[in-house]
Amino acid sequence: MTQKQNISELINTITTHEEVGKHLLVLYGQINQDVIISAVKLTERKLILEKVPHNVITKTKMVCTEILQNILKHQTKHESLQPNFVVRLTDSGLSITSCNIISEESKNFISEKLEKYSKIEKEDFREYYIEAFRSSTISNTGNAGLGLLDIVYRSKQNVKYKMENLSNNLFSFNLNVTIPQPLLLAN
Amino acid sequence: MKSIHIDPTHSSPEVTFDFSEKKLTIKGICTPENPKLFFEPIIEAFEEYQKQYKELTIDIFLDYFNTGSSKCLLNLFMKASTNPEIKINTIVNWIVDSEDSELKESGIIFEEITGLKFNYPCQN
Fold this sequence. Notes:
Chain A is 47% helix and 24% strand. Chain A is of the alpha+beta class. In chain A, α2 runs antiparallel to α3 (54-74) and α3 packs antiparallel against α6 (147-154).
């Protein structure tokens, strides 16, 4: 797949989504720390303009940061496929989607965690989150291993994902996080 | 060791640890690439402070933070709460916007885990 095809596929995915909504941010290309800071700042500005409640803005900034830092941590360079990251307002809330290329090892690690979190009962999730937070340790690279858990917790388990085998033990990882907030578009 | 001051950057907060005022203030965005490295001098200063003083006020006024920083903050709070031999009277002011229940909930979780006394003053 060429870079051009990759971009048109991204646009196609965005525009044919069942709830197109209002696009606030579309990011395409390799992620680094500066890109993360700018993307979160831009998302915040857009959300303020859309009169989104303060607590939802904070939640969104934290979820976006974790998703983007997760891409940074796991992204594997691919000759034609670049990571993408999209924030949209829809009728049912804020939708944050991302796609990046990961190794088989990352694929197994991420899917195992997401499957585990999806099976936790909603009423037990806060307690699970607190215990995981309490018992975690931080590595020398500053990683506490809590990013995916934090995304699932803050989105109240509104997380869907898809992984597809590309080639040479590389997988595409599509993540869709919804932050429920009814009637945002009515503002 | 004396008081420390760290200037804010686009991804890390301003930190002022004023020994004479008995106050540690952390303010701004807290998503440094390596939170462990960022918090190291603060935790070192805190360990030194514990040897000399019996009380401390910590003002936390964060815009948002990443999970690595969250864990480092928890480690800092735990140092203030768990060692009975060098325990100091610590009050945490977790300063939030009045409408920001998300950030306040994060403070409540820190409070539940550490058992430290948290206040939740509003910035507006």
